[in-house]
Design goal:
12 helices
């Protein structure tokens, strides 16, 4: 039996390829581990500082109290005002972004000409590149005095409604872009089968295409909602720093993120319970965001199995 003999040059090339593959594998592993390590460091710091906060403040007071006066002489640590303001502004933002974003996605994927689709999509995605501080001052100096005060007499110059409207505009690209990609990815066979049965264009869109793309649409909505909850500058500039427990969008309110921004800029000395409160609020916001992401994963899995 003849034995195969490999040349030294071939063996050297094989060795170099193995070494390069190993190095690239290690490089990619390290790059992919950065996000995981970053999240672990953030979560660890939040838990560590929150432990000191909750050693002074009871969980019952924190979750059920309706007054948040951390920076006052008489301190109360009920987080419900911050949580309510965050939920209210995020809900208003969704009322703006979901209809506008979904309508835009349907138009771009099903009605717009190819020559028009790309520039319109680029313009919409450009909204996400505008600094949020611009949105905040636009809401404070244009939306509220020129529009909202004309429609709603007595509305505060700082109010949750203006915050929600501007955050809604901010997250329209998230809903529109991700939903458009999901709709555009629906197999052409679905559409052709519906047309073969005599369905009209609007019936195909809302009874075939949108249900088939529902997993991606729901994922975009939940992602937009978590983005709205984490917005800081618009809430801080247009919403003000008044902490009240209310569901009236005409009032000035402070969200969880704007409180963190206020205290982190130096309103509380490092190491005090006032300073540690921002970690407790941040941990709560992280848990809420994580919960919504887990719900989104389960919803997407369910609809993917169904369709």
């Amino acid at each position: 039996m003849q034995q195969t003999v490999f040349s030294p040059q071939l063996l050297e090339n094989v060795r170099k390829k193995r070494v390069s593959n190993t190095l690239f594998n290690l490089l990619f592993l390290g790059a992919s581990s950065i996000s995981f390590i970053t999240i672990m460091v953030i979560v660890g710091s939040l838990i560590y500082e929150s432990t000191f906060f909750f050693s002074h403040v009871s969980l019952v007071e924190f979750f059920t109290g309706t007054e948040w006066t951390v920076l006052f002489v008489e301190k109360k640590f009920g987080v419900l005002p911050l949580l309510t303001a965050t939920a209210l502004t995020s809900a208003i933002a969704l009322l703006v972004a979901v209809p506008a974003g979904l309508a835009t996605a349907i138009y771009l994927s099903e009605y717009a000409r190819p020559s028009l689709r790309r520039p319109v999509k680029s313009i919409i995605e450009l909204l996400a590149g505008i600094p949020t501080v611009v949105y905040g001052y636009f809401a404070l100096y244009f939306i509220t005095p020129n529009l909202l005060k004309q429609l709603i007499p007595g509305i505060s110059i700082h109010n949750a409604l203006a915050v929600g409207l501007m955050i809604g505009v901010l997250i329209i690209p998230i809903v529109a872009s991700l939903s458009e990609d999901a709709i555009y990815a629906v197999p052409e066979d679905f559409k052709q089968a519906a047309y073969a049965l005599g369905a009209r264009k609007i019936d195909v869109v809302f009874r075939v295409i949108v249900p088939a793309a529902l997993s991606g649409i729901l994922a975009s909505i939940i992602l937009a909602f978590t983005r709205a909850m984490g917005e800081t500058m618009i809430a801080a500039i247009a919403g003000g720093f008044r902490v009240i427990f209310s569901t009236d969008p005409r009032e000035a309110m402070q969200t969880m993120t704007s409180f963190i921004a206020q205290v982190a800029t130096g309103d509380a000395p490092h190491g005090t319970v006032e300073y540690q409160s921002i970690f407790a609020v941040g941990l709560l916001l992280f848990i809420i965001t994580l919960a919504f992401n887990l719900v989104a994963i389960q919803v997407v899995k369910r609809w993917q199995i169904r369709y």
